[in-house]
Write a structure and sequence with these properties.
about 375 residues; alpha/beta; Rossmann fold; Arc Repressor Mutant, subunit A
Length: about 375
């Protein structure tokens, strides 16, 4: 993103008026959001379908927005801002109809190229819920799956902590701006980034959370993930919003059962009863359903160390999810002949496996 594009993105993000339909309409008329930013006034906002009260609020926010200051804050936070049209915008998230137009990101965006699964649940977890969260998180990390959650207390924080402890990669999606975290949440966010993870938010850097921001956050959690697992949730849990959104996006949804008299699992049971989630009693259920080749508990992972840059590049895009050669070529940027020859070397050294039909996984 060029400096002018970044300033434009920060400006549009600050006024919080764009959805996908309005974004596409502006691109059609002006070509870029940069050019459209010079025409923001009440007439343009009415043309986008904004109500008069909204227009008044947007213009007030626009007057207060200092794009130069926002740029400085972005840099000081060690973050970047992405727009929907950027190449580094998460591909799975782009597929949902209500994808956020802008994303503030701090950390390693490349981990979203790996298979990712959302693990969500209540803030007031029981001992049983904690054990469930640990079991599922550890299994996903073992299978080299990126975990996705929301950084809240309870299940969310435990998922992040267990992922890091197991040497895995995790994504935390915020319901507020990156610069408004509590000291405790900021400490965990810093740990996630230091461990090679990622913090995401669609909200301006200094925007505080409210009753609307967390439900909006939940669609990003669902949209980033191949599947969503509800680990423990009462009927009032926000995790059910994430599950319903994942269901609407035609993503896999799973719910862990509890005792029928336990209100902390009433939400999980309701999802299964309404056929909005499949019951899961083992992490293997989830992994096999999304197509992951589940590592054997009896075998150690390959300890092979890449000997060349090409090997290192290819091992970086290989996962436990089977991928054909043409997909590996696209992700790695290597020539087809190079990918084929490197795969042969890696297979001889036990670092990769051909699982049939020309599909490859990392051992």
């Amino acid at each position: 993103m060029t400096p002018s594009s970044r300033r434009s993105a920060l400006l549009w993000s600050c006024i919080q008026v764009l959805n996908r339909e309005r974004h596409d309409a502006l691109i059609k008329v002006f070509g870029t959001l940069d050019d459209a930013s010079y025409h923001i006034d009440s007439e343009l906002l009415r043309g986008l379908g904004c109500r008069e009260k909204t227009i008044s609020n947007v213009l007030e926010r626009l007057e207060k927005c200092d794009a130069e200051l926002e740029e400085k804050l972005l840099e000081s936070a060690g973050a970047v801002i992405l727009s929907l049209t950027d190449e580094s915008y998460p591909a799975r998230l782009e597929q949902i109809p209500d994808a956020p137009i802008f994303l503030y990101a701090r950390g390693d965006l490349s981990i979203l190229q790996r298979p990712s699964v959302a693990l969500v649940g209540t803030r007031k977890m029981t001992g049983y819920g904690k054990r469930v969260a640990q079991e599922y998180t550890r299994a996903l990390v073992h299978a080299e799956i990126t975990t996705v959650s929301g950084l809240a207390r309870g299940i969310d924080s435990l998922v992040a902590e267990e992922t890091i402890a197991g040497g895995g990669k995790t994504v935390a999606v915020l319901g507020q701006g990156l610069l408004t975290l509590s000291p405790q949440s900021k400490a965990l966010a810093d740990t996630i980034v230091a461990a090679g993870g990622l913090i995401l938010s669609e909200f301006p850097l200094r925007m505080a959370p409210d009753m609307f921001t967390f439900p909006l956050r939940n669609r990003i959690i669902a949209g980033l993930s191949l599947a969503t697992i509800v680990l423990e949730a009462p009927e009032s849990s926000g995790a059910l919003i994430t599950a319903k959104l994942a269901f609407d996006y035609s993503r896999d949804v799973f719910a862990v059962p509890g005792q029928i008299f336990d209100p902390n699992f009433a939400g999980c049971h309701a999802l299964v009863r309404k056929h909005q989630a499949r019951l899961t009693s083992s992490p293997r259920d989830v992994l096999e359903e999304i197509g992951v080749i589940v590592p054997s508990d009896d075998l150690e992972k390959s300890s092979y160390v890449a000997q060349t840059d090409d090997e290192r590049t290819l091992l970086g895009v290989l996962t436990t999810m089977p991928q054909p050669v043409d997909e590996l070529v696209q992700k790695s940027g290597l020539m087809t002949s190079v990918v084929s020859s490197v795969l042969t070397v890696l297979e001889l050294n036990g670092a990769v496996k051909n699982v049939g039909s020309g599909q490859w996984v990392r051992s």
